[in-house]
Design brief:
single chain; about 140 residues; elongated; about 80% helix; mainly alpha; Topoisomerase I, Chain A, domain 4
């Protein structure tokens, strides 16, 4: 049986984890926007630089999705700590988390399209093929 103090602490932990999800989403989207502002027309980056920025954007989105899913798992465990008979601890709030994932992916797709539309996609493909041909053990 949980005391009122422990239950209040677990509720506060839920609020904190939800705030962290919003913070991660905002940080990744801001990072994507910053990458686009670096690669704007004023700076005239080469194709390989745009390809590297695209790879970094993809990595940032993957890390952001991992952190969001990790926080969703933490929310699941905390909800079970509050109420072990909770019927759907994983799916409560999953629609918001999936919206956050969607926002990160959508902003990354738009920015990557804008970066690669001038032929830099060929350089991205060459970089990916070069990494694909490396032996697995390096």
């Amino acid at each position: 049986m949980l005391t009122d103090t422990i239950k209040a602490a677990l509720w506060e932990e839920l609020r904190f984890a939800k705030r962290q999800q919003w913070t991660i989403t905002a940080a990744v989207v801001a990072l994507i926007g910053g990458a686009y502002s670096i690669a704007s027309e004023e700076h005239r980056l080469d194709a390989w630089e745009k390809a590297v920025i695209t790879i970094l954007i993809a990595a940032a989105v993957m890390v952001g999705i991992y952190w969001l899913s990790d926080l969703q798992r933490h929310l699941h465990n905390t909800r079970l700590g509050i109420d072990p008979c909770d019927p759907d601890p994983w799916w409560r709030g999953a629609d918001v988390a999936s919206g956050m994932v969607g926002a990160m992916i959508l902003s990354a797709v738009v920015v990557c399209y804008l970066l690669l539309r001038d032929g830099a996609w060929e350089m991205l493909l060459a970089i990916c093929l070069a990494f694909g041909m490396l032996p697995m053990g390096f």
